Each structure stands twice: as C-alpha cells, then as structure tokens.
Amino acid sequence: MATLDRNGVKIHYEVHGKGPVLLLSHGYSSTSRMWDGQVAALKDRYQVVVWDFRGHGESDYPTDGALYSEELTVGDMQALLDTVGAKKAIVAGLSLGGYMSLAFNASHPDRVRALMLFDTGPGFKKDEARAKWNESAQARAARLDAEGLKALNQSDEVKLTRHRDATGLAGSARGMLAQKNDRVIQSLDGIRVPTLVLVGANDTNFLAATDYMAAKIKGATKAVIPDAGHAANLHQPARFNQAVEAFLAKLPAA
Question: 198-221 as b/e, with b when 16 or more CB fall inside 10 Å?
Fold first, then answer.
C-alpha cells in the first residue's frame, strides 16, 4: 500500500501498469475500488493511478475541517503526478472526481494531456443554485455526524467502499462537496485539451450538466451509456470501457 504525505495527511494511492499516465478520481463517499474494472482493462497500455480522497477509504481523516477543500484536493492530485514522475497526465473522474478534475485543469492546465469527465457537473454560475447545493452538502454532513456510516446511500459505487468511520466523509461534504464560487464552470470555455464528457442515460441529475459541458468545451466528445445510472462504469462496464478506449485511441501521441 502506497501513501503520500501531504503535510501530515496521508493519501492512499495505487499505481497499476505502464505507459501514459491516467489519473482516476472517484466520487464522493466512494473510493478507488470503484475503478477496479478500468484498471484491469487499461493497465496493459496505461499507467493507471487511483487514489482515495482525504477523508475517504484508506486515506487519513483529518479532524480539522480546514484540511478539506477544493484547493487541497487539487494539491493532492498535483502531488500524486509529481510522485509518479508525470509532467502531464490524462485526468479523469466521476461525479466529485470529475468536478475536481476540472478544478485541477483550471489550476494546472500545463499538467493535463486530456480530460475525461464521467457523470459529473461543473458547478454553478448562479449564487442561488450554488447555495442550494451547499445546503444539501451541509445537511449530508450533519446526517453523517448524527448517524455515522448508516447515513450513506446504497448506490453501487458506495456499496463497494470501506471507510473507517464517517468523520472524514462529513468533513469532505463541508469542505470538498460544497463549492465556494463559480471558478470551475467559468473555466470551461478555456479548456484546450481533448475532452470526453460521458454520462449514463439514466443519470437524470447529470444529463443537463453533461450537455452543457459538451457544448461549452471546444471539440468535446460526448458519450451516453445506455442502461446506466450515475456509476456508469459499474452498470455497463463493457460499454463504458469501449467509450473510454475509443477516446484514448484518438489522442495525439504524448
């Protein structure tokens, strides 16, 4: 088990295979285990890096709420690429992992070779919409504080996970799921790398966001996976992997 020390916070990560680096970030309250099927499919051609967000899985669960933020998560991703010696990587993620992939590109576009955004959204331009989202994140944190891990939903990507307790997930909801501003959504027009925007056909909460990103990101490739919900990679792994591999095959040589 490999860990990265980020100023006293240990981040769990795994490196599989050799080749161009692909960094996969999981969704909120999931872990790197959700990517096992993609690791198996891609590790013969890519160096696949998976990891657990702070507050999740086998990473540390800081007790200080200030140690959970978008900025720190982007820093964790940068440190992971530094650790594996990747000047550039294909940066990808699902749900919160997709949002953080966009945030990483907004901060470090020079480190991104391509983006893959799965069942995710870019945040909100309107303060009222962001405030409503943040209220939901705060309510989720409060339920985790009160009920522990029993407060987790039973979606497929969450059922795969193991967390030591709910404290890290509550901290992550307040500091990472909640959003401070419209920085990420405002960055879409400036994305200059090949981008795959993928969604499960039944993931109704993210269909509009997928269309929005596909329209805003110049030259984006859009893929809709039939008979799949939010965890499209788990619901239809063969179709998901086919869409990902078709996109990767068209990338310019590194």
Answer: bbbeebeebeebbeebbebbeebb
